[in-house]
Amino acid sequence: MVKTLEGSHAIADMIVNCEADVLACYPITPSTHIAEKLQKYYADGKIPEYITVEQEFSAISALAGASATGARTFTTTSSQGVALMHEVLYAVAGMRLPIVMCVANRSLNSPLGIWCDHQDIIPERDSGWIILMCESNQEAVDTLPQAYKLAESLLLPVMVCIDGFYLTHAVEQIDVPSKEIVQKFLPKFKPEFKLDTNNPITLGIYSTPQYLQDFREDLANDVDNAREPIKKTEEEFSKIINRNYGNGLIENYKCDDAERIIIAMSSFCGNVKEAIDELRDKGEKVGLLRIKSYRPFPYKDVQEILKNKKHVGVFDRATTLGGHPPLYTDVLAAIYDSDQKVPISSFIGGLGGKDVTVETAKNIFEDLKENKIKRKFV
Amino acid sequence: MAQKKDKTKEIKVPKVPHSKCDTAKENKTGSWRDQRPSIDLSKCIKCAQCALHCPDGAIEVDETGAHINYDYCKGCLICERICPVKCITHKKEEK
User: Fold this and answer.
1) What is the average per-residue pLDDT within B66-78?
2) Do B16 and A207 touch (CB under 8 A)?
3) Interchain pair B17, A215: CB under 8 A
4) Roughly how many angstroms between the first and final C-alpha of chain B, as a whole number?
5) A193 Cα to chain B: minimum distance (Å)
6) A-side interface with B, Cβ within 8 Å?
């Protein structure tokens, strides 16, 4: 049923519908409203357990323990909160605990800012978590049950990322699929290995050099092989709810006959689509390739779409200081692997909540008219 | 779920890194010992203070007195310090 909801509250509603067992969240702007609403639902008895923790390191650690017992878990955080979790995020992936986390993307210190950019998740891209970047609140709500399904079937943790404030605090019309719909799609979590007093095992073990690389290789293969399940899950759920967001890994918006393309992630894509519609009315052949699955990165799909394009602009909402920006690097790597040569320019913008508008997208498309490769802040 | 890229190489580790319980006993750690404590059973009053303080749980007390399990004793000599009747002494471990 479509309701007028704040993005954060819609996500909290969906967590209740996904029947999460144990939650541990420490509030941090802009993810606070999700944690706040979930606290309310815990008080109302809709969530079995909510551990009040003193900081984010504890939040994710508490969930590691809960998840190891076979519970369905959830937490939410932003910015410094993600950074404080950093160590445990790697541990959780290595322990194969299917925790789902909603990150409301926000800039990292310093200067201190509470507004949106993607810098907070960049240090976690190598952690072994699946990272799904959502463009809208509706997409985030529809992605959460998929995140649980992927996490629990692949034994990999999943981050569902939404842009702080642009989405978390936006009040709009959102359809939250009911518990019955989610139940049909999402089976109960029954792990093969879990903490059980009747059959005691140790999890989070240490490993000698003889075996450690094998564990890491196994994890690396599983994250790599998650691309197909992500596509399949998206296809399956989109049939149930009659909404779809590309193939689960990417969204192709009018790329097929386009000459110039912007590659971007999350909420800015809405503005790019608007710009594309306006420019196409004037006869310009432009398109958008939205990356939804940042990890695993859809190299093949990117290669496929960038075939025979004239100029590609990659828009990053984060920086790699002393190197090429993160999304740009991945696109370059994708193209190096293929037999085509296409100029790829880098645009960094929207840092710390700087507005990136339809006009910004149009300016990038204007820049792409020249054949010269550009790397600049917009 | 894992599809190995290199089919010739088989990964032999379990998907979820874990170990069974009670496996530490299999690693006999007595070889780390530098000092070897011994108990004079004629003086032992079976108070079990040594067993309670042993960090490795390597001392057991029965009706005949306290006995050290040299498979796990690392020779820290806490037992010697704690013994109220001074019936535990030590000498250098001969390897």
Assistant:
1) 96
2) no
3) yes
4) 49
5) 7
6) 94-96, 153-155, 191-193, 200-205, 207, 211, 214-215, 217-218, 221-222, 225
**Nearest CA distance, A195 vs chain B (angstrom):** 10
Decide if A2-239 and A250-377 have a common fold. Answer: yes
Q: What's the CATH number where B45 sits?
A: 3.30.70.20
Handedness of CA A258, A261, A266, A269 (dihedral sign): negative
Predicted confidence band at A135 (pLDDT cuts at 50, 70, 90)?
Answer: very high
Task: Report if residue B8 sits inside a domain.
Answer: no
Whether the CB of B21 is below 8 Å from some CB of chain A: the reply is yes
Beta-strand relationship, A201-203 and A260-264? unpaired
Q: Average per-residue pLDDT in chain B?
A: 88
Please indicate, yes or no, if residue B63 is contained in any of the structural domains.
Answer: yes
Mean pLDDT, residues A149-165: 97
pLDDT tens digits, residue range A173-192? 999 999 999 999 999 999 99
Residue type, B16: V
pLDDT digits over B58-71, tens only? 999 999 999 999 99
Q: What is the pLDDT of residue B27?
A: 84
Domain A2-239: what homologous superfamily?
A: Thiamin diphosphate (ThDP)-binding fold, Pyr/PP domains (3.40.50.970)
DSSP 8-state class, residue B10:
P
| CATH fold label, A250-377 | Rossmann fold (3.40.50)
CA distance B87 to chain A (A): 39
Domain count, chain B: 1
Determine the Cα angle at A204 with ends A201 and A208, to 5°: 100
pTM: 0.88
Q: CB–CB of A205 and B3 under 8 A?
A: no
Q: How many CB atoms lie within 10 A of CB A350?
A: 28
Q: Are A122 and A198 in contact (CB under 8 A)?
A: no
Question: Shortest CA distance to A297 belongs to which of A261, A262, A263, A344?
Answer: A263
Domain that holds residue B57: 30-92
In terms of C-beta density within 10 A (0-12 exposed, 13-18 middle, 19 or more buried), how is residue B36 classed? middle
Mutate which of B3, B7, B8, B15 to test chain A, going by most A C-beta atoms within 10 A?
Answer: B15
Q: What is the per-residue pLDDT for B24?
A: 78
Assigned domain for B75 exists? yes
pLDDT at A200 over 70: yes
| B18/A202 CB distance under 8 A | yes
- How is chain A split into domains, by residue range? 2-239, 250-377
* Nearest CB partner across the interface for A218, out of B11, B18, B20: B11
Q: Which residues pair with A171 in a beta bridge?
A: A6
| Subunit contact A192:B20, Cβ cutoff 8 A | no
Let me know if residue B14 belongs to a domain: no
